[in-house]
Design a protein that fits this description.
Blueprint lengths: L23 E3 L6 E4 L2 H8 L3 H12 L3 E4 L4 E5 L4 H15 L10 E6 L2 E6 L5 E3 L6 H69 L2 H23 L3 H18 L5 H14 L6 H10 L9 H13 L3 H14 L6 H11 L5 H10 L11 H10 L1 H18 L1
Antiparallel strand pairs: 1-2, 2-4, 3-4, 5-6, 6-7
């Protein structure tokens, strides 16, 4: 049947459909109850939670309700006819599903300052629901519960990541001890070999010593030329290449090991300390980042490098801007994934969004290109603002 409120929709071409609600009476006497077998199908067609729909029945009929998510079983105390249940559904659709502006069932809830709004995907309007209805208390409670679970999941992910890093560090220390022992034995062999070579050299004439000195001098001069001929851009490229080679040869390396290699490459290339985040992003994030789940894989390494420092996180966004110049549509996707993995904080992203071009923006990112990236990220920024406003209202 057509999805409609208290006023029926008779249009045969109306594309919004829902199944007819029906109940099944169980028990008798004081224990009589009505079970709704197709509660999930009804709620799915309305894009709402089955528990919420079932709770509405209880609010309107003045009866106690229960919904078991595991068994998908919705129960209303008392005996209720199919006609009464269907009338309640139309009333629910009128108040909590249809857009007050265009009348289409294309709405989602937006909660702000303790109030529930209809956010319509069809016409874009944002209208408040009837906050005097008892169901609003249930909706707000469920939203609060969902936010707590989301925070708990993020916290659990972080704890697991920290535990894994500790285990990796222990394993690394064991490997270092073993390598140290092997190195000591190799050093002893090398010393013996050098002593023998020295004796042979002493037997040779002064001419051979002079030739050797000349060869050494030439070698030093060649090294000096190569070092002075490297500019900042070339040094950065060499550092990126070094990290790429390490990632290729060590696909199972831990976050701590990768971060150590990045720092070593940054220091040996003589680029600035904050450039290490750019080195890693350019080396690790490729065009197939989404398919290969690279953000999820390397988020712990990013956090090791930035240490959740606000300044380093701004440099992280700048690095992401640089790698997305060719495909700006990838920019908000990467930002969202870094945010979901706790590698980027909400306030840092919002700060970037409203700062405009700043000292963090890299030279290769022109004002025009940055505007394009900012435009692509606009829906994500709006979502973050709404989420921040909603969280602020709950804390109040």
């Amino acid at each position: 049947m057509n999805i409609s409120g208290t006023t029926p929709v008779d249009d045969p071409s109306y594309r919004y459909k829902m199944p007819v609600v029906y109940g099944k009476i169980e028990g008798r006497g004081n224990g009589i109850k009505t079970v709704i077998p197709n509660i999930s199908e009804v709620s799915l067609s309305l894009h709402r939670n089955p528990g919420e729909v079932n709770k509405f029945f209880g609010c309107e009929l003045g009866a106690q309700t229960t919904y078991n998510e595991k068994d998908d079983r919705a129960v209303i105390n008392g005996s209720h006819t199919d006609a009464a249940l269907q009338a309640m559904i139309h009333k629910y659709v009128e108040g909590f599903v249809l857009c007050p502006n265009c009348g289409l069932p294309e709405t989602n809830y937006k909660i702000k300052n303790g109030c529930i709004y209809h956010k319509c995907a069809a016409c874009g309007s944002k209208e408040m629901v009837d906050m005097g209805h008892k169901l609003c208390t249930y909706i707000l409670a469920q939203d609060k519960k969902a936010r707590k679970e989301k925070k708990k999941d993020k916290s659990d992910k972080k704890d697991k990541s920290d535990k894994k890093d500790k285990d990796d560090e222990k394993l690394k220390k064991k490997k270092k001890k073993k390598k140290s022992k092997d190195k000591d034995s190799d050093d002893d062999k090398k010393k013996d070999k050098k002593k023998k070579e020295k004796k042979k050299k002493d037997k040779k004439g002064k001419s051979s010593d002079q030739n050797e000195d000349e060869a050494k001098t030439t070698e030093v001069e060649e090294d000096d030329v190569s070092l002075t001929g490297v500019d900042d851009a070339g040094a950065m490229d060499l550092a990126v290449e070094g990290v790429q080679n390490f990632l290729k040869d060590n696909p199972d390396a831990s976050a701590a090991e990768i971060a150590e290699v990045v720092v070593n490459q940054q220091m040996s290339s003589a680029v600035k300390s904050h450039d290490k985040v750019q080195i890693f992003i350019r080396a690790a994030i490729t065009s197939s980042y989404f398919k290969e789940k690279q953000i999820e894989k390397y988020a712990p390494t990013v956090m090791k490098i930035t240490l959740s420092n606000p300044i380093m996180e701004r440099h992280l966004i700048a690095a992401v801007e640089l790698i997305c110049l060719e495909k700006p549509k990838n920019f908000p996707v990467i930002l969202k994934q870094l945010y979901d993995e706790d590698a980027l904080q909400e306030d840092i992203i919002l700060e970037w969004a409203f700062d405009g071009r700043s000292e963090y923006t890299l030279k290769g990112v022109t004002e025009e290109k940055r505007s394009v990236l900012r435009g692509e990220a606009e829906p994500f920024i709006v979502w973050l603002q709404d989420d921040a406003d909603s969280s602020g209202s709950e804390s109040e």
